[in-house]
Amino acid sequence: MSTLIVIDQPPYGGWAGREALDMAFSLAAFDQPVSLLFCGAGVNWLRKGQEPGTVRQKSVEKNLAAAPIFGVEALLADSDDCNRYGLEPGHLLDSVTLVRTDPQLFAGYSHTAFAG
Amino acid sequence: MSTLIVIDQPPYGGWAGREALDMAFSLAAFDQPVSLLFCGAGVNWLRKGQEPGTVRQKSVEKNLAAAPIFGVEALLADSDDCNRYGLEPGHLLDSVTLVRTDPQLFAGYSHTAFAG
Amino acid sequence: MTEIKTLHILNKSPEHPRFTRCLTVAGPEDTVLLIENGVLGLVAASASASGKLLALDADLAARGVGNQSGTVETVDYDAMVELTTRAQQVISW
Amino acid sequence: MTEIKTLHILNKSPEHPRFTRCLTVAGPEDTVLLIENGVLGLVAASASASGKLLALDADLAARGVGNQSGTVETVDYDAMVELTTRAQQVISW
Amino acid sequence: MQDSSPFSFTIVITGAPYSSQAPQSALNFAEAAIKAGHRVDRVFLYGDGVHLASALASPPSDEPHWPREWSAFLEKHCIAGVACIASALRRGLVDEGEQKRYELSASNLLTPFIIAGLGEWVEGRMASSRTVYFHGSD
Amino acid sequence: MQDSSPFSFTIVITGAPYSSQAPQSALNFAEAAIKAGHRVDRVFLYGDGVHLASALASPPSDEPHWPREWSAFLEKHCIAGVACIASALRRGLVDEGEQKRYELSASNLLTPFIIAGLGEWVEGRMASSRTVYFHGSD
Fold it and tell me: Could you tell me where the DSSP H helices lie in chain E?
């Protein structure tokens, strides 16, 4: 009975990704099982070495690294989309699991939601 | 020294197309030469037989038909995108000219702008 | 009344990456309901949807795409509500 | 200072239809400047841009894509302003 | 026609009026749900959807006034309308309490909407039999 | 380094703060233009960009306050900031005049922004040597 929150929009250009993270952390705070799926341009949230201070935004790298501690069950990333954006495993934040975004993946969750 | 206003977003789901039309009509009202280019999903503005009363919006069919009278020089539509959306010439509003969206087309205008 | 595994509510035009993603993810026991700009992808969705495909009548009529492809089953908002109650899960794209 | 025919300011990710459209329309005498989400398309744009390709340094650094592909010429906002003055026309996508 | 047992809905709107069709589609859906004998527990506005709770929106008189139509619907059926506080504050949507706290010149939250946290969304999801999202298009 | 003859700019912003990066990129650009000795004639807010003129936006204190930063920049350099009236009224952005005309409970337009028609955009395009648009991303 876990929820999948999907982030398919890239970081910094918009707020939808942050708002999706807030949704996931809220569920975790209420002890509701939740995982995050990054796909499409959303996989760029997972790149190591982001310096969003240059656009005066806060890094989410620490939040994502601490996601398991906050109670988020898994950080999933679409492997094809990672390839498309040149994200090899070494470029990805730790604790990310590569998956295929297919019907089977979604069937494992009772709810799936986007932030916008 | 003509301006090209580009509409690449579909009708009714958002307001950007209407706001682009307003830009074109404003330029025409100030006697500034202007043409409209519909491309991508934006070609769906040009389909005959729209009934936006079902979503409680106003039809732009009459505005577009009257565009030449208002001083808009041309209504251009990308022919490939019309094909992609099954828009044969008979489905299109009158006074639409089919074009290819290529560097030559844009070179014919001194300014090009989107509404958003 | 057959049960629906997942009802996918798809409101994006075929230009939007979520349109393709939705159709990739929807399985044979699922239903895809096209609403808003999604109805512009009727032809593309008919070709690739593995489950059932429906489209909202008001949005089809607004965009004038109802008559051209008479093959899709259309629904109104009453039927859309019923679909959400018959589906185990609802995903809005 | 070479003249630029059209400066294309591209702030969309490669998933967005305007990204491809911009690169199709940009001719060999044009310059494409990637900003915001546009810098995520650096690799795709390098492969298909017929004119000059530039990327805004602040947006590259924010997204951590600067170091991976060291080939693109980067500019700051001062240079971006200068580019707009050197171009006959500026199109923001 | 309808299943005999009533369902309850939480409706989440993330698209703004006059930028997206989301508030309109959501209202049509909510009205149909009530008509079918179901309950709408709560409407939660998130992201750009919070603009639906603006008391100052003034569309042309020949266009639907989505904030007022939603307000009337919520009051008629005693449905809670909640705008996410984090989304609302960033986007300039404030009630009198936030006006005082941030020493702002005015408040602009339309009744009966209230401002509250994402916990309202979590609670809605748990309490309602279905949660349906209405996002912006493209 | 710079061309010796100064240019003048009209800047058009169509993306909202906290939904897009447009107001930030535009401010960085405008500051660089002034620094290079150019003139910024006018900033025109269109579509969702009108939310940049909100007097009620209250982002967390550790995030930039884009409406206030823009307001300070406009005042410092005596630049006209104009929100399109049609975009603004639909989206709940009103000055005192519109508040009275539409009998609204408050106004929320941040100084020095004013509300005016698309004619201001047409005029800006004609008067300035360059018009540069900042749209929302995706």
Answer: 22-35, 66-76, 85-90, 96-101, 119-127
- Indicate yes or no: CB of C64 within 8 angstroms of CB of B41: no
Whether residue E21 and residue B13 make contact (CB cut-off 8 A), yes or no, is yes
Contact D1 F130 (CB under 8 A): no
- Tell me whether A13 touches chain F (CB under 8 Å): yes
- pLDDT at position A1 is 74
Q: Among candidates E109, E87, E104, which has minimal Cα distance to E13?
A: E87
Q: Lay out the sheet containing C87-92: strands in order across.
A: C73-75, C52-56, C31-34, C4-10, C87-92
Q: Which residue of B has its CA nearest to C63?
A: B50
DSSP string, E77-117: TT-EEEEEHHHHHHTT---HHHHHHTT-S---BPTT-EEE-
For residues C92 and D4, what is the distance between their CA atoms, to the nearest angstrom?
Answer: 44
Query: What would the CATH number be for the domain defined by D4-28+43-92?
Result: 3.40.1260.10
Which CATH number covers residue E47?
A: 3.40.1260.10
Q: Do D62 and A52 touch (CB under 8 A)?
A: yes
Residue with tokens 């002890």: A31
Question: What are the beta bridge partners of residue B92?
Answer: B47
Domain count of chain B? 1
If you measure CA to CA, which chain B residue comes closest to F13? B116
Note the pLDDT of residue E92: 98
Tokens matching residue E10: 């939480």
Helix (H, G, I), strand (E, B) or coil at F43: strand
- Across the interface, of D5, D6, D25, the residue whose CB is closest to B102 is D25
Coil, strand or helix at C57: helix
Say if residue F15's pLDDT is above 90. Answer: yes
pTM for the predicted model, two decimal places: 0.97
Instruction: Give the closest residue to E49 by CA, choosing from E17, E94, E9.
Output: E17
Give the pLDDT of residue A73. 97
Residue F84 is a catalytic residue: yes
Q: CB-based contact (8 Å) between E3 and chain B?
A: no
Domain total in chain F: 1
CB-CB neighbors (< 8 A) of F89 in chain E: 57-60
Distance CA E107, CA F105 (A): 9
The answer to whether the Cα torsion of F40, F44, F48, F53 is positive or negative is positive
Query: Is A12 within 8 Å of D36 (Cβ atoms)?
Result: yes
Exposure on the CB side of residue E102, measured as CA atoms within 13 A: 21
Q: What is the domain range of residue E44?
A: 2-134
pLDDT of residue F2: 46
Burial class (CB in 10 A: 0-12, 13-18, 19+), F51: buried
Of all residues in chain C, the one with the smallest CA distance to A6 is C93
Distance between CA atoms of F100 and F106, rounded to whole angstroms? 9
**Over residues C39-48, mean pLDDT:** 92
CA distance D41 to D65: 10
Q: Exposed, middle or buried by CB within 10 Å (0-12, 13-18, 19+), for D7? A: buried
Catalytic residues of E: 84
- Three-class DSSP category at F32: helix
CATH code assigned at A40: 3.40.1260.10
ipTM score of complex? 0.97
Q: Do D18 and B106 touch (CB under 8 A)?
A: no
| CA distance linking residue D51 with residue A61, whole number of Å | 35
